[in-house]
């Protein structure tokens, strides 16, 4: 963006100088025009017809930009019948700068935009001066148009009559343009088109900081182009004007100046003269507002914003909305009057509006305006609405300002059949209210009386949608002026002071606490069946079903980045705006009984035939320990809210436990049970409960929004990514804008980087498009660049198996993103979190690859079975028996993998998995699990992705390889006589087996190389696959073909040798499985030193090709025995073709891969050298730690260095806990490597603890928090609130296991805080509720 503006500034200086420093612009341009009087005059004559196009016949068209007005038409001129386009826009720079920019036909911005629009070439034939340019462009047109070539001459001049700057462009005579060598190959068939244009640049204002650009352009595409196609393409030929506007735009600055000017107008409350028409408009509009205030026969509409109340009259002709805005009356009204601001116009354009405009009705007054809006009706079969009329504002009293609008007819806008003109009378009333916490308040009422001229048969559903759409401006104003955070901060500050007061609890309050904490005990003791609930990765959600009710209890646990006092205040504040949801109609406190006890009230709107719901509840909070607080909501009744026939009484039962983990980090445990009352099924209530459990995630989001950018880390990036992708319904673009507005960190980044919001919006939209090339550096990235970069992530997600790999490909493809990642550590975690959620919901890219592999595996099995049947039918029982053994070994291998995965789990699960193997559906089931991103069961050894890879390797080793050899051998040994039919089924089976093996080998190599973790840990081995999506797809296809043809060549070679020397068993079993896979299939992954090595891999490939060709020649030239026939020549031709194709695919891989990795195919490095070098030359601990996954003999020579590295860094790892520093990794270390200070602890972890210690730990993990005051009450009534089931992680990043238990010494720590542990038994203290051996803390 900065580069484009510098380009404009430099060109404007050159244009102004005209070759002579200090020269006058007008004189230079006039002199230049006189010098070119002949040619220039002729060019002006050629474009003169554009001035005579007239004012009629133009059709308003979508310009694909909110700030450009566009009209098109077909007309007959002196040049013949041509397509015409007229466009008008405002450019935020001087007229000279605009002229300079639009004359730069070979500028960087013009070249980049041309590449995006399909231009194949853009050259300057000659340039006499900057005022006179001959240029040409070749543009690829969409089907059915051929590629077009345009050769033009552009001359800039000064109009002597009007004084405006002009640019005239006319086609050059038929001349050959030199585009460089290879034109025919690059362009193909080219048709010469003609384009004439006349551009007028008129300065605006006395400071010449803006100008109005008007363009009239004719287009004769040439050839045989249908008129409908030409008209559809007309909006694309004004791209230079749109680019000029976007490059120089100062939208925020212009909007701010306009708003300040309007506010200043409102502040001047002097006498204003209103004519009779204006007074009539205001009086009628006020009457509409009074009817709306009465709310007679009005029904509530479902509002997108819970703080905006919408309602409509039963007739459907009167409707309105009311809300409270957090700003002064003048500013609120100014935004309403400036409804055509650039920001609002952009938002409206994204929603589908064609245009909106507002201009003063008279220069003599500042209180009346004309306005015009063209927007889609959103009703099927109804034309777009054109809302045209007059708007008047007036101060009714000192604190109330009204804005009235009445539709009418304007002579400049005759009625068109393309639009419907509804009759509208509306009132916007702004009333000043007392400030709240120092924030000004304004009541905004918007009432409308309208006749949309719809059919009587219009569906009520579409009518409601239309009414809500007309009232969306109220919701936009509510969001725009929202200062809820500032208001609630003041409220939370007062609550923080109350928390320091030591409270006394009555018996009633203690009983409320006990009832509210019941759910914690139910989850602690697992009194029922629990079910996990899928939700955001940063929280753990589950349902518990008890035997006494069909309604479930729900629990949600997560970490919140906030002080415990702020979190308690947020949970406690029933009236807080941030606690409202879309279904809330009211939230209030009916009575405040004490600082720690109040009676709350909530009301929810009804949906469909369901009546509204309301709930009355007691809210009580209590401090359990110095770091733990409990808040409960239990149902109750109150005299201010008796049962009403209009509402159904719901029952509320909620519990909150806030536990401080460390400063500014708390763990929130939330339990709830939903009983909405009435005749609603338990299934519907439990479904509502799942939505209610998102409270913890919404709390995380609320406090994340308050965090400043300078405090962000990787965990914050993940949290913000989840927030951006967590859209329940509505527009994704609107959700991203709202998030950027509410989140302090994103708002700061968006202010610094103009492209960032557009990039994130394109990422969230996730529309699959080809990846665009953007080589611009970070400082010069524009909004368009950001959108192109964001759109490219979808292609990366579609072509990669994991989110990490997709984001890694995306980041390394763009220099600007690499710079941005170096500056902000949270960028990659944010992108990974978004990509993960996209993969969970729209993982068709992964699914297509996985299911394609499953299809090949299943097809291979089916064709093998068919081949067995063919052998049996033809009497070849030996081949059938061998193939049966091969398939049986494959199934046995899959059963072995299944047993290893499930032998530690339930027997039923093992039987189920083995049945899947026996039915032949194992590949498809594994692919489905990986596509759904299923979690690894606790008893499993490896994850689902690794299990899928193992299954495919088993299939490749035991079935695909032997099957290919057998089938080639069978084809060679068949009696090839004239009567012998060609065995199509055998050839098809062979082809499927080869493709299956090739696809599996390519997937293994591809996934290993693109893994970001492997690329970081071993950059010398992994990273040969290019970073762009197109190159990755090409190299994947090349690897698949290479492996498939290698299998075919090897099969022919082994089959020929088998016929010659009968060496089948020697060929199949002389190698280990890994080497066998490398030799037979050609998996590129096995070229690494720890497998077979690069030099040997390449030598083996060469030997494979050569030996197969030699074996084929020997086989063909052998002496035939009596009755023996050679197979047809097509088989020998197939050997040559397969060998050549395999070699060509390998060369393709070498050409496509990164050049520095080509030498790895000739590497003679041993496995030991590779392991030692990876440790010695690696800079990161994450890469070094992988050495312990290798055999000890490989790194024995550097054992001392490894030991010193561990001893030196152990304390730092214990303090910062890297992701790889797990208990499993610690236990894998040899004893002499571990520091002596940590050996005792690791020995206990390794060899376990005494049985009595484990039993004591289990008992201590079941402690119950007592909420009453004495030991006797503890023995009789045990509280059920438990802390044992809370999450013990210490970050917000998504965790695989969120349900860690607290340490067993919790009770000992709490006893030091004033908690006395009393042993509970069944026969002492009145029974006290079961469970001998459990202990209870008593708060003193």
From TrEMBL:
Keyword Lipid biosynthesis on entry: no
Transmembrane region(s): 879-900, 986-1008, 1054-1074, 1095-1115, 1130-1153
Signal sequence annotation: none
UniProt superkingdom: Eukaryota
Keywords noted in UniProt: Membrane, Transmembrane, Transmembrane helix
UniProt cross-references to Gene3D superfamilies, sorted A to Z: 3.30.530.20
Name this polypeptide is given: START domain-containing protein
Species the sequence originates in: Tetraparma gracilis
């Amino acid at each position: 963006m900065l580069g484009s503006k510098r380009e404009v500034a430099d060109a404007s200086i050159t244009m102004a100088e005209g070759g002579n420093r200090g020269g006058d612009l007008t004189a230079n341009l006039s002199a230049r025009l006189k010098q070119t009087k002949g040619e220039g005059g002729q060019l002006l004559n050629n474009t003169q017809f554009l001035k005579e196009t007239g004012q009629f016949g133009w059709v308003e068209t979508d310009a694909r930009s909110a700030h450009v007005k566009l009209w098109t038409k077909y007309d007959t001129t002196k040049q013949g019948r041509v397509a015409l386009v007229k466009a008008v826009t405002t450019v935020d720079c001087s007229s000279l700068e605009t002229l300079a920019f639009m004359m730069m036909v070979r500028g960087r911005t013009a070249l980049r935009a041309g590449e995006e629009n399909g231009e194949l070439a853009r050259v300057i034939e000659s340039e006499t001066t900057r005022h006179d340019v001959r240029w040409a462009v070749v543009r690829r047109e969409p089907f059915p148009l051929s590629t077009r070539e345009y050769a033009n001459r552009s001359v800039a001049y000064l109009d002597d009559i009007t004084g405006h700057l002009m640019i005239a462009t006319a086609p050059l005579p038929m001349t050959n343009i030199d585009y460089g060598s290879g034109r025919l190959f690059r362009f193909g068939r080219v048709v010469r088109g003609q384009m004439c244009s006349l551009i007028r640049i008129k300065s605006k204002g006395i400071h010449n900081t803006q100008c109005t650009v008007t363009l009239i352009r004719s287009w004769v595409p040439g050839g045989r182009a249908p008129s409908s196609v030409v008209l559809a393409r007309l909006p694309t030929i004004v791209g230079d004007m749109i680019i000029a506007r976007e490059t120089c735009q100062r939208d925020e600055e212009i909007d701010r100046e306009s708003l300040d000017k309007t506010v200043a107008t409102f502040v001047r409350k002097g006498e204003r003269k209103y004519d009779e028409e204006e007074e009539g408009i205001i009086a009628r509009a006020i009457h509409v507002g009074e009817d709306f205030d009465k709310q007679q026969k009005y029904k509530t509409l479902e509002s997108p914003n819970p703080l905006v109340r919408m309602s409509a009259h039963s007739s459907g002709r009167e409707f309105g909305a009311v809300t409270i805005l957090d700003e002064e009356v003048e500013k609120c009204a100014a935004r309403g009057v400036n409804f055509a601001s650039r920001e609002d116009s952009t938002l409206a354009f994204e929603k589908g509006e064609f245009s909106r405009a507002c201009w003063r009705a008279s220069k003599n007054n500042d209180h009346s305006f004309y306005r015009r809006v063209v927007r889609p009706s959103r009703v099927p079969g109804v034309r777009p609405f054109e809302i045209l009329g007059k708007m008047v504002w007036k101060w009714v009293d000192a604190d109330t300002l009204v804005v009235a609008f009445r539709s009418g007819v304007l002579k400049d806008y005759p009625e068109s059949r393309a639009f419907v003109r509804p009759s509208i009378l509306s009132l916007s009333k702004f009333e000043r209210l007392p400030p709240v916490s120092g924030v000004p308040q304004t009541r905004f009422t918007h009432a409308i009386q309208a006749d949309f001229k719809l059919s009587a048969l219009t569906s009520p559903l579409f009518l409601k949608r239309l009414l809500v759409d007309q009232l969306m401006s109220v919701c936009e104003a509510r969001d725009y002026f929202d200062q809820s955070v500032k208001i609630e901060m003041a409220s939370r500050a007062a609550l923080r002071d109350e928390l320091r007061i030591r409270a006394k609890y009555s018996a009633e309050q203690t009983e409320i606490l006990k009832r509210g904490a019941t759910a914690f005990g139910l989850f602690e003791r697992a009194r029922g069946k629990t079910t996990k609930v899928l939700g955001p990765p940063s929280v753990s959600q589950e349902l518990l079903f008890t035997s006494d009710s069909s309604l479930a209890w729900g629990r949600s646990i997560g970490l919140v980045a906030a002080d415990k006092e702020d979190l308690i205040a947020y949970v406690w504040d029933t009236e807080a705006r941030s606690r409202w949801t879309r279904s809330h109609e009211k939230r209030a406190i009916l009575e405040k009984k004490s600082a720690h006890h109040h009676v709350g009230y909530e009301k929810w709107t009804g949906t469909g035939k369901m009546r509204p719901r309301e709930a009355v509840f007691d809210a009580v909070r209590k401090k359990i320990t110095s770091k733990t607080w409990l808040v409960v909501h239990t149902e109750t009744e109150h005299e201010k809210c008796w049962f009403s026939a209009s509402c159904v009484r719901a029952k509320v039962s909620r519990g909150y436990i806030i536990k401080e983990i460390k400063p500014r980090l708390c763990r929130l445990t939330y339990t709830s049970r939903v009983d909405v009352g009435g005749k609603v099924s338990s299934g519907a209530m439990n479904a509502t409960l799942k939505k209610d459990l998102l409270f913890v995630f919404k709390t995380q989001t609320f406090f994340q929004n308050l965090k400043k950018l300078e405090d962000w880390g990787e965990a914050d990036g993940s949290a913000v990514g989840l927030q951006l992708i967590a859209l329940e319904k509505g527009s994704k673009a609107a959700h991203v804008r709202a998030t950027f507005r509410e989140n302090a960190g994103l708002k700061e980044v968006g202010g610094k980087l103009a492209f960032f919001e557009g990039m994130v919006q394109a990422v969230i939209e996730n529309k699959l498009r080809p990846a665009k090339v953007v080589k611009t550096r970070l400082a010069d990235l524009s909004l368009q660049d950001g959108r192109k970069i964001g759109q490219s992530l979808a292609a990366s997600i579609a072509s990669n198996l994991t989110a990490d790999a997709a984001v890694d490909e995306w980041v390394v493809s763009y220099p600007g993103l690499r710079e941005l990642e170096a500056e902000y550590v949270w960028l990659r975690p944010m992108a990974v979190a978004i990509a993960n959620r996209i993969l969970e919901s729209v993982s068709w890219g992964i699914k297509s690859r996985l299911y394609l592999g499953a299809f090949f595996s299943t097809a291979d099995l089916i064709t093998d079975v068919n081949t067995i049947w063919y052998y049996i039918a033809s009497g070849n029982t030996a081949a059938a028996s061998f193939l049966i053994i091969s398939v049986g070994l494959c199934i046995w291998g899959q059963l072995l993998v299944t047993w290893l995965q499930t032998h530690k789990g339930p027997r039923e699960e093992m039987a189920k998995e083995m049945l899947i193997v026996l039915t032949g559906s194992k590949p498809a089931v594994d692919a489905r699990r990986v596509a759904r991103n299923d979690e690894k069961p606790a008893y499993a050894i490896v994850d689902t992705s690794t299990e899928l890879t193992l299954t495919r390797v088993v299939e490749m080793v035991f079935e695909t390889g032997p099957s290919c050899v057998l089938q080639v051998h069978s084809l060679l040994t068949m009696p090839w006589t004239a009567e012998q039919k060609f065995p199509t089924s055998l050839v098809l089976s062979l082809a499927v087996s080869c493709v299956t093996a090739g696809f599996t080998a390519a997937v293994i190599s591809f996934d290993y190389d693109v893994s970001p973790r492997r690329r970081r840990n071993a950059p010398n081995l992994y990273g040969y696959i290019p970073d762009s999506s197109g190159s990755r797809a090409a190299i994947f296809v090349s690897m698949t073909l290479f492996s498939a043809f290698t299998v075919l060549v090897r099969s022919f070679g082994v089959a020929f040798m088998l016929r010659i020397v009968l060496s089948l068993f020697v060929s199949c079993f002389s190698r280990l499985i890994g080497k066998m896979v490398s030799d037979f299939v050609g998996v590129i992954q096995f070229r690494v030193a720890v497998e077979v090595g690069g030099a040997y891999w390449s030598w083996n490939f060469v030997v494979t090709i050569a030996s197969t060709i030699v074996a084929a020649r020997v086989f063909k030239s052998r002496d035939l025995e009596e009755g023996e026939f050679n197979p047809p020549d097509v088989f020998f031709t197939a050997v040559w073709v397969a060998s050549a194709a395999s070699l060509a695919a390998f060369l393709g891989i070498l050409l496509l891969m990164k050049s520095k990795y080509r030498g790895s195919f000739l590497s003679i490095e041993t496995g030991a050298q590779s392991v030692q070098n990876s440790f010695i030359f690696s800079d990161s601990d994450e890469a070094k730690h992988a050495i312990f996954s290798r055999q000890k003999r490989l790194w024995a020579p550097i054992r001392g260095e490894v030991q010193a590295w561990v001893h030196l860094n152990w304390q730092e790892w214990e303090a910062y806990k890297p992701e790889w520093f797990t208990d499993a990794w610690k236990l894998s270390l040899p004893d002499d490597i571990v520091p002596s200070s940590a050996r005792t602890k690791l020995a206990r972890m390794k060899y376990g603890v005494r049985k009595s210690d484990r039993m004591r730990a289990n008992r201590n993990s079941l402690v119950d928090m007592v909420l009453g005051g004495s030991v006797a009450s503890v023995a009789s009534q045990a509280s059920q609130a438990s802390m044992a089931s809370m999450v013990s992680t210490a970050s917000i990043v998504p965790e695989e296991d969120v349900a860690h238990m607290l340490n067993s010494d919790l009770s000992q720590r709490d006893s030091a805080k004033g908690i006395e542990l009393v042993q509970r038994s069944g026969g002492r203290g009145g029974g006290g509720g079961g469970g001998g051996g459990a202990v209870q803390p008593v708060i003193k």
